Amino acid sequence: METPGRIAATPDALDFTVENVEKALHQLYYDPNIENKNLAQKWLMQAQVSPQAWQFCWALLNPDKVPEIQYFGASALHTKISRYWSDIPTDQYESLKTQLFSQIACFSSGSKMVLTRLCVALASLALNTMPEAWPGAVAEMVRVFQEEGGGVDGRARCLALLELLTVLPEEFQTSRLPQYRKGQVRGALGREWGSVCPLLQQLLRRTDSPGAVKARVLRCLSSWVLLDVPLSESEGLVHDCFSALPDPELFDTAVEAIVNAISQPDSQRYVNTLLKLVPQVLALQEQLREAVQNGDMETCHGICRIAVTLGENHSRTLLEQVDHWQSFLALVNMIMFCTGIPGHYPVNETTSSLTLTFWYTLQDEIMSFESDKQAVYLQVYRPVYFQLVDVLLHKAQFPSDQEYASWSSDEKEQFRIYRVDISDTLMYVYEMLGAELLSNLYDKLGRLLTNAEQPTSWQHTEALLYGFQSIAETIDVNYSDVIPGLIGLIPRININNVQLADTVMFTIGALAEWLADHPVMLSSVLPLVLQALGNPDLSVSSVSTLKKICRECKYDLPPYATNIVAVSQEVLIKQIHKTSQCMWLMQALGFLLSALPVEDILRNLHSLITPYIQQLEKLADETPNPSNKLAIIHILGLLSNLFTTLDISKQDDESADGSAPPVKTAPPPPGPNPVVVVLQQVFALIQTVLSKWLNDSQVVEAVCAIFEKSVKTLLHEFAPMVSQLSEMLGQMYSTIPQASALDLTRQMVHIFASETDHFPPIKALFELVTSVTLSIFQQGPRDHPDIVDSFMQLQAQALKRKPDLFLSESLDVKAVFHCGVLSLKFPEAPTVKSTCLFFTELLPHCSDVPPLARVVQEDGKLLVQAVLEGIGGGASRSLMDQFAEVLFCLNKHCFSLLAVWLKEALQPPGFPSTRVTVEQKDNFSQQILRERVNKRRVKDIVKEFTLLCRGLHGTEYAAEY
């Protein structure tokens, strides 16, 4: 067969013939050339929506065609009916319906995939004609297929009818009907349930119904209940589903149907029906036990889904039926059995994880009753939740070492996530059980560790500790009286296994705040942590625990400092840990050193940093290559992480919740800050490294990070370095401009610009980086959105901290303003955001900084035009709030000028969008000019206008706003 090249190339209406469609399908399925396949695909999509489709689709359904071709014909029919319904004349509805019925009858014994497409096409026709043009559609479908006819055997006809009834609600869920029609059709379908239900019941209850028919009936029920068929009306069928569960062939579809029926939001109204379902679910316990014994995971899973769905969706309703409390408690215990199902998740069972959300739901419902009712429920359910804790900790246990070694990495990862879910559940359960839960865990652990008769498995100990850690990590356990006992037990644990050691570490870490209040206990756990630091398998847990202890307990650690530093140095030299853990370890040491006397800090810093400085000197001499680059970045990273947390001024920790910056309460000790001393010693070396690596943005970033972290931590104590660093930054930026240098300049401006002593170097640096950046703008800044972004942030910071910087003769204020206008048109949203911030900082200074006042008067119109262009569709819709803020500032600080600018800017036809009329533009500018106080209102006006400009007003896209 020739390749129909011309078909794909010229999709002319005359070409959409049966013959050509078949050629294109052959090309799509059998041509090895991917180009040809794609062309055929495109051409066929056009054919499908062409007017000629009405002719060729029936011809393609000919019995002598192959199924792929028939399928395309059926799909084309569905596309025409579902998407181009309005093209079909009313007088053709009847004949279309009759043709579809006869095709479905023909295909009821033919290709299943073609039959389904035809059913979907007829379903679409029914949805478009219900209820007016085709009242009683479902009843008619049932009647047509039940009549003898056409020599098609009864079973095939029955299956075709069930297929049609199954796809009807599914097609409704995905149909593109307009909202008002959706409501009408849903109502009409609801009324048709009366024709469907008796048919399904009759087929399910007939002993001679073949399995295939029953399975299709169950699928059909699943499909209909999703239309919110009232549970009271499907009750009989749901009972029949329970009767189908013992049949292995029907099990999965029956489970699906039951779960769908009882999880419909509406079903909780039918209390009596729900009460009748509880004994039916309880009756499945025998089948569940047998499945567990036979290792039949699918059956366990299905029965558990049913029990959990009933419990999770209806726990409140069932709790409120006080007369039936025993049957609900029996259901809860059945779910408990599923939680504790034997075997290790996910290798020998996958059921237990389904139950965890049920326990949250039940607890929420119990805790939401008023207190007298709650007390009654707690009496019944507190013991259940104590049992749940035992079951969960049993499930969280690791398998034997031998078995665990045989698991795949994917199974190990699933088990890890499962344990996190258990941990979350335990944390939640603590809200109900309170301190008694911790005592309970402590007693069990104590018995385990002090019982000399029975040797304990490490798994058992680990799970109990894991339970403790889950709670202590997120809940304040400082008031618990069992923690001292727990800390006392930890050294008695025989740690002979990595998982157990990890959990011991994380448990100590979770108790760091408690240790800060009880420093006397540090001596019993710190040696364990330091010992674990030397084990690469415990890298994450030991380093993060040491970091927590150093952060929380730093004022109690001086007696241990020498030891901690020595062990840390040793593991750093041996390179036991990966990069990120080395960085955490440096942060830990920063916290630790902060609490020591200055001379001790200097001594420790000296021994800690010297090996790295020597290494860096060696690297600085070498010719740059990729491996020494990584080593340089690593060393610079270690230094910056150390300086991030090394802060010798006593801080008021009360404000350390992140809401306010820490307040320095005590004056720093006299003399230079140790960090500054070290930075001054290595400054020349860092300059040498820089001179060789100026072209490499990662090395430059790593250098800037050291100073940025130090400036942020030390604040004004960084003062002795200001002039040196300003000079170095200026040189760096003039040679090869990089965003990280601008970000560091911004930090310096933020802290030192308003200090008289430091104003000259900061001013010189600010002017230098500004003029270098302006020259980038002249060469074309599009390739450097990151530099433009950082530059705008720097300018905004300068305006905020020290507007005097803009009084300088050497600063071209006009050029900076023009760069801002240009930056507003960048496609990168972060850059535009920073630029809007720059303008909102600049406009308020029109009154007090003459150069700024001049440039706004002369060029303000350009700014207004750029903002309108963005609102008109030039910028992402996510930026509209920022543009609104600029307009609001203009209105507040340049009101009379804005009125003129808006009028002039909106004058040209088609600006800012061809979609807005002159009236809409006038209305917009009047609304803006009226709002000088309410910023929220300006944002709404801008959003409204941008939707008009984009032609989205009143669409579903607009609704996302």
TrEMBL record:
InterPro entries: ARM-like, ARM-type_fold, Exportin-1/Importin-b-like, Importin-beta_N, Importin_beta-like_NTR, Importin_rep_1, Importin_rep_2, Importin_rep_3. Residues 651-670 are annotated as: Disordered. Pfam families: IBN_N, Importin_rep, Importin_rep_2, Importin_rep_3, TPR_TNPO3_IPO13_2nd, TPR_TNPO3_IPO13_3rd, TPR_TNPO3_IPO13_4th, Xpo1. PROSITE patterns: IMPORTIN_B_NT. The keyword Ion transport does not apply. Belongs to the importin beta family. GO terms for biological process: optokinetic behavior; protein import into nucleus; retina layer formation. The keyword Protease does not apply. This is Importin-13. One of its GO terms (cellular component) is nucleus. Its main location: cytoplasm. Keywords: Cytoplasm, Nucleus, Protein transport, Repeat, Transport.
